[in-house]
Every structure is written in C-alpha cells, then in structure tokens.
Write a structure and sequence with these properties.
By secondary structure, the chain is mainly β. The chain has two domains: 23-246, Galactose-binding domain-like (Jelly Rolls, Sandwich), CATH 2.60.120.260; 248-330, Immunoglobulin-like (Sandwich). 5% of the residues lie in helices and 54% in strands. The protein is built from two helices and 23 strands. The chain has helices spanning 98-103, 243-253; strands spanning 2-13, 18-28, 36-37, 62-69, 73-80, 87-92, 111-121, 125-131, 136-143, 148-154, 159-166, 178-185, 190-195, 200-205, 214-222, 227-238, 256-259, 266-271, 277-284, 289-298, 301-304, 311-319, 322-330. The strands form four sheets. Strands 1, 2, 3, 4, 5, 7, 12, 13, 14 and 16 form a ten-stranded antiparallel beta sheet that branches. Strand 12 (178-185) and strand 13 (190-195) form a beta hairpin. It starts with a strand and ends with a strand. The model is unreliable at 10-19 (pLDDT under 50). Residues 1-21 form the signal peptide.
C-alpha cells in the first residue's frame, strides 16, 4: 500500500536516553493492491495504480507483478518478459509528489532517509534512487553482472560512484532479502550508505542544495532466469541521524589524531592505521562550510589554519573507509 504521510514517530533508544523524531513521508509495501501487474500500461506516461508508471517505449522488456509471499505480504516481482535476451524496466512516481512532501516536512527534520528491500537471482542491474532535477540525488544499485554493489550520489556538479563491495572472490548475495538505507544530511552536507544485512557502510560529503523530487527504480540486464523482488520502499525526514550510523563514524574518527590542538597556524593530522585522506573540509559550529582542500591519497596531512578566526571548528576527513569528523580549536 502506498502511503503519502507526514507522521511523526518518536523512537526511544535504550541506554542512550535520547529520542529520535522520524517523520515518514512516503511508504510503499504493495499490500493494498490485487495480485497482478502493478502497472497496467507500461508505455503510458500517466501515473497508474499507486501513482506508479513506467512510460517505456515498446517493446516492453519486463513486467512488474504484485505477488503474495509468505511472511512478507505482497511484494513486487520483476522479470524479463522474453521479448529480448536482456530484459528490464523502469518505474517511478510522478513529479510533484515527493518534492511537495519534503517541502512540507516538519521544521528541523533536515535529514532525508531513503530505504527499500531487495532480492535478486541470476543476472540483474537494479537500483533505487531519489531524483533531483533529472539525475540521481542518492542511489544504491545491485549489479550482479559486474559482481558488485555500488552507491551513487550527486556531489556538486555531477554524480559520484562509491563501490560498497566487489564480489570478485566472495559469493554474490543472491536469493536473500537485503535492506538498504541511505541518508542525506543537509545540516552537515554528508551522505551515508548502509546495508545492515551485509554489514556495509560508507559515507562522503557533498556541496549542493538540491532537494528530493522523485523516487525511481530501474531493473535491467535480466535474462529468462532472473528474478528481482522489491518491498518496503520508504522516504523519511529525520531530525538527527540514527545512533548506528554515528557509532561507526565515531570509531573511524577515533583512529585520527590532531596536533597541536588548540592550534595557531598549522594542524597535523595523522592516523594509527595509515589510512589515506583524499579531502579535508572545514565547518564552523553551525554547520557552514568554510573551506575544502583535496589531497593526493596522503596518510599524514599538514593543514594550514592561520586564516581561521579564533573558535571551534569541525574537520571532515574523507577517506576510503568513510568520513571521520574531528573537532579543532583555533587559538
């Protein structure tokens, strides 16, 4: 069942004593639809059942069927229809749905969370995205044909890919329901990708003010044996990041050392595991980005801070393991 909602959910985290306000904006679990085609006319550009439409040019190379599954209710199953040796389809909501919901979110809920559940067999390239001004704003794609799982997000002027995992030696995670979670933190300009089922997590920074406008799914490279399933699509607006996202990045930050701190002119950045740093971004205490410097895969950084006014700053260190955030005090 698709729901366009603005419910506030208060989640109490045991042991932390903190309350996280999560505002659910959009949900789709397919449970309110009869078994059969989700989209009755795959070539139509008009939204159909549940507001979903495909609008692809004939011939149609795949089908999206609402199907009951034990223990999950209805799920959406995507298969090739046999017209081509490589089938697939795309489907999305109409513009004017997600953007309106986001623009009317509760004040202060400036973290977007996008999640869905995925199941795949045989060959597929499947991704779920939130779009903005055409391109993907944030995305996680499962690519069995390339033996990898890839994250994608809008950086500043283009899309950037992050390999969450290559499966060149490990078996690809076929035939399992996999939950994915993505976060865009507009307060700190960070993106986070998290797949709890596979214990995968990455983070990075961005420099733009693009807002979410649409939700979009694509499934391609399907052969006659391919089966792709989707369920529990959801978009939420959060006030703060979940503790399980922050805890991983805090562990990464603990591996870095800043000295001298407080600093006057230059700060030295080192780490205990010789992790390389690609970029350092400086924010003030209210989250305003002040400066970004790129580095050539360096394990030790000498960063000039002489132009900063006296005060407290947050350094975002971008590494291959994610974003490490360290506090800097300038004398």
């Amino acid at each position: 069942m698709k729901k366009l909602i603005t419910t506030i959910l208060c989640l109490f985290f045991l042991g932390s004593g903190t309350t996280l306000k999560a505002q659910a904006l959009f949900e789709e679990d397919f449970n309110n639809y009869p078994a059969g085609h989700l989209i009755n006319n795959y070539t139509s550009t008009t939204p159909q059942q549940g507001g979903w439409y495909s609008g692809i040019t004939p011939p149609v190379l795949g089908s999206a069927m609402v199907t009951p599954e034990a223990g999950k209710g209805n799920v959406l199953i995507i298969t090739s229809n046999g017209v081509s040796t490589v089938g697939g389809l795309t489907f999305s909501q109409d513009y004017g749905i997600i953007d309106v919901l986001w623009n009317n979110r509760t004040v202060g809920n400036n973290i977007l969370k996008f999640e869905y559940e995925f199941y795949g067999t045989d060959n597929f390239v499947v991704g779920g995205s939130v779009l903005s001004q055409g391109p993907s704003l944030i995305n996680i794609a499962f690519q069995s044909t390339q033996k990898r799982i890839v994250a994608n997000y809008w950086n500043s002027i283009s899309n950037k890919n992050i390999i969450l995992k290559n499966y060149n030696t490990d078996p690809y995670p076929f035939n399992n329901w996999i939950k994915v979670e993505m976060f865009i933190d507009y307060n700190t300009k960070n993106v986070y990708f998290y797949i709890p089922t596979l214990n995968l997590q990455k983070a990075d920074t961005f420099a733009h003010n693009r807002m979410p406008e649409n939700v979009y799914f694509s499934a391609g490279s399907l052969n006659s044996s391919s089966v792709v399933k989707l369920d529990n699509i959801k978009i939420s607006a959060l006030q703060t990041l979940p503790s399980y996202i922050l805890s991983t990045n805090e562990k990464l930050a603990a591996k870095f050392n800043l000295y001298p701190n407080p600093a006057t002119n230059v700060i030295n950045i080192t780490n205990s595991e010789n992790m390389v740093v690609q970029q350092v971004t400086i924010y003030d205490v209210v989250g305003k980005q002040l400066n970004t410097q790129n580095f050539n895969e360096e394990t030790q950084i000498h960063l000039s801070v002489e132009n900063l006014a006296s005060g407290t700053y947050m350094l975002h260190l971008r590494t291959n393991e994610g974003i490490a955030v360290k506090k800097l005090v300038k004398k």
